[in-house]
Amino acid sequence: MFFASLIAALPDKYSLAKPNIDMATPPYTPAHLVNSEKPVTERWYIVFWVWDALKQKKVRKRCYKVNLKKTKMERLAYAKTRIAGINKLLAEGYHSNPKLLREKKAALYADRTKDYSIYDAFKYILPVVKNSKRPATFNSYNSCTNLFLEFCELAGWTGWKLRTLEKVDIISFLDYVQAPKEGKAGVSNASRNKYLSYLAAMFTMLQERGALDKNVCHGIKFLKEETGGNIAYTPEQIEVLKAAINEQNPRLWLFVSFMLYGFIRPAEIGRLQVRMINLKTKEIKLPGTITKNGKPRTVTISPHFAEYISSMSLELYRPDHYVFGINLVTGAIPIQKNYANLSHSKIARKLGFGKEYTLYSWKHTGVVLHYKAGIDIKTLQKQIGHQSLHETDIYLKSLDLYENSEIIDKSPAI
């Protein structure tokens, strides 16, 4: 698809530069796999030595992406292909040239006065978004961009200058994404509002860099979003699932406890390190580098929550170890992507739970149980990590809960 990959990946620190035509093959040491004799709970990596054009000597490069593979067979297969590719480039004279890569990267941001077309403007700003956002967040921005450019192509605007866009054009796009297409319903008000937020943020970035005079998204109203839709488990469902999870994968239930008591999101739990947990102060310090909104958050550890954490004997591990590493076991390597979600889904589906019941439902369940046990909305706001009481109020309404300022503060046993 024309919009599927608007920008090429920016050069990373392992990128190699093409050799000059008259350049002799520089010295190098072929790539090979390290630690393959160890179990997959250990950290494997590919290492090679490549010629550095600036330092005029060989420098060591390492690649740790092999650890993204779950099984030993998958890692060995990945490493074999990766090593063959690296060694082929080294034999052809590819080398390290940091200065050249920096110049290429800088060229993406160099011209602030250019009168960009709509297409070129997004090609210019998406690398900025990529460098400042998490991969998952960037993917959302990129998807919005692809959809907006798709609309521009259909409208015949692809060659338009960015500065010619008006507020009515953005509204036309928002109407487009909400309109039914080929028998399918358009996006919800919530999705429409997210698209507006993404465009507004990128236009602000362009405005700050001199590529745009005004942000045409400003002044466009957000549509009212429907409440409800967040599903929590009932007490009966909790009992059934808890028993099954503890029987089949006890570590998964420990993972769930961080959602039930700490209201911590699965992605945040996956990046949680031992040093962030302090049972003496009864706090978990989540740095902005792992939270959804990029802001640091302090999670209070209740007595029942402390019992689960104590059972993990985290004091036996290094401070930089991940609380839930490979296969949910505490260790030096973070948990595999979607491992907890898939493990939970497998158990839930066998018990007859529909797809709407997910691992994330445990976070909603924890909020519901604590609210009904008497936790006040201000305390819930802090534990959830919301920036305002209004945000918490909307969330509670989505769970069919409503604020009660007279309830007392206590944490239930789950």
Automatic annotation (TrEMBL):
<dbReference type="InterPro" id="IPR050090">
    <property type="entry name" value="Tyrosine_recombinase_XerCD"/>
</dbReference>
<keyword id="KW-0233">DNA recombination</keyword>
<dbReference type="Pfam" id="PF00589">
    <property type="entry name" value="Phage_integrase"/>
</dbReference>
<dbReference type="InterPro" id="IPR013762">
    <property type="entry name" value="Integrase-like_cat_sf"/>
</dbReference>
<keyword id="KW-0238">DNA-binding</keyword>
<protein>
    <submittedName>
        <fullName>Site-specific integrase</fullName>
    </submittedName>
</protein>
<comment type="similarity">
    <text>Belongs to the 'phage' integrase family.</text>
</comment>
<dbReference type="InterPro" id="IPR002104">
    <property type="entry name" value="Integrase_catalytic"/>
</dbReference>
<dbReference type="InterPro" id="IPR010998">
    <property type="entry name" value="Integrase_recombinase_N"/>
</dbReference>
<dbReference type="GO" id="GO:0015074">
    <property type="term" value="P:DNA integration"/>
</dbReference>
<dbReference type="GO" id="GO:0003677">
    <property type="term" value="F:DNA binding"/>
</dbReference>
<dbReference type="GO" id="GO:0006310">
    <property type="term" value="P:DNA recombination"/>
</dbReference>
<dbReference type="InterPro" id="IPR011010">
    <property type="entry name" value="DNA_brk_join_enz"/>
</dbReference>
<dbReference type="InterPro" id="IPR044068">
    <property type="entry name" value="CB"/>
</dbReference>
<keyword id="KW-0229">DNA integration</keyword>
<feature type="domain" description="Core-binding (CB)">
    <location>
        <begin position="116"/>
        <end position="207"/>
    </location>
</feature>
<feature type="domain" description="Tyr recombinase">
    <location>
        <begin position="228"/>
        <end position="409"/>
    </location>
</feature>
